[in-house]
Amino acid sequence: MKAFTKKISQSLAAAAVVASAVSMMAMPVQARDLNDIRNDVFQVVNSGAYPPFSFVDIKGNLVGFDVDIAKALAEKMGVEVNVQSSPWNGIIAAMVGGRFDACICSMSDTEERRKAVTFTDPYYSAGLAVWVTGDTDDVNGLGDFSGKRVGSTLGETGNQWAVENANGNWRNQTFQGLPDMMNGLTTGRIDIMIADDVPVMVAIRENDADIKMVDVGKLPRFPAAISIQKNKPELLAALNTALAEIKADGTYQSVVDKWIGVGANIE
C-alpha cells in the first residue's frame, strides 16, 4: 500500500484550542488594529501542516493556499506581511494573547470559536465527506457504519461529528493527521474515513490513492474564515474589503487554480 510521505500530519485538539483561548482572554493582550499594523508588519499565522492550504515545501519554505491568500490580502491592504506557522492546538490562544494579528489557516467559523475570536467573511467552504477504499462496496449509508472502524483526525470537525453520531454503533479511531489516516484506511486499520473533502481530493489526486468518496447523505459543511482578535473593527473591515477585491479581480481564482486545481470552485 502506498505511503503518503508527501503530506505532513496535523494534530488538532479543538476543545483544548477554545478552552485555552478563552482562558487567555482573561490575560492582558496586545491589541493591534489596522493603524498599528500599517506602522509595523501584519503578523499572520497558520499551522504549516495542512496541505495544500499550508505546508513546508522541500526547500523549507512555508507555502500553500492560505499563504498566498494572506499575501494577496496584505497587498490589497497596503501592509507588509509576515506569514509564519504555529502548532494548531495553541493557535487561537496565541493570537488572542497578541502574538499574531490574524489566523489565515483554514479555520472553520463555528459558534464555539466565536466565543474567543471574530471571523471575517468566509474565504472558502469545506464539507465533511466519507471515504473508503476503491474496492469497498458495502458502505452506502450511515446504517452501513454499524460494526465498522471509523477514522478521523483528533480535534477536527470530522472527529467531533463521528463522536456525536456513533451511539455505540461503530468504533471511532483517531489519527494525528490526514496522511496517517489515509495510510490507516489503505492498510486496513480502519474501514471508513471522515475528513474534509477538499484536502482529501487533492491528496488522492497527488498520490494516485485507491480511495473514493461515498454518498451517505447530508453531512455538515463549514465556512472557512479569517479569525482575528475581538474588537478590531478597522482590521475586520479592511480584510473583508480586500477579500472582496481579490475575488473580483481574479486573484482569488488564480490561487485556487494553483493549489486546488484549475477551474475548481471552493467558495
Structure report:
The chain is α/β, with parallel strands linked by helices and 267 residues long. The protein folds into two domains: 34-125 and 223-260, Periplasmic binding protein-like II (D-Maltodextrin-Binding Protein, domain 2, 3-Layer(aba) Sandwich), CATH 3.40.190.10; 126-221, Periplasmic binding protein-like II (D-Maltodextrin-Binding Protein, domain 2, 3-Layer(aba) Sandwich). It has nine helices and twelve strands. It has helices at 14-24, 34-38, 65-77, 91-96, 157-166, 178-186, 197-207, 233-248, 251-259; strands at 42-46, 49-50, 54-56, 62-63, 81-85, 102-108, 118-133, 149-153, 171-175, 192-196, 211-214, 221-228. β3 (54-56) and β4 (62-63) form a beta hairpin. α3 (65-77) packs antiparallel against α9. Mean pLDDT is 86; it is low at 1-28. Residues 41-263 form the Solute-binding protein family 3/N-terminal domain. Belongs to the bacterial solute-binding protein 3 family. InterPro entries: SBP_3_CS, Solute-binding_3/MltF_N.
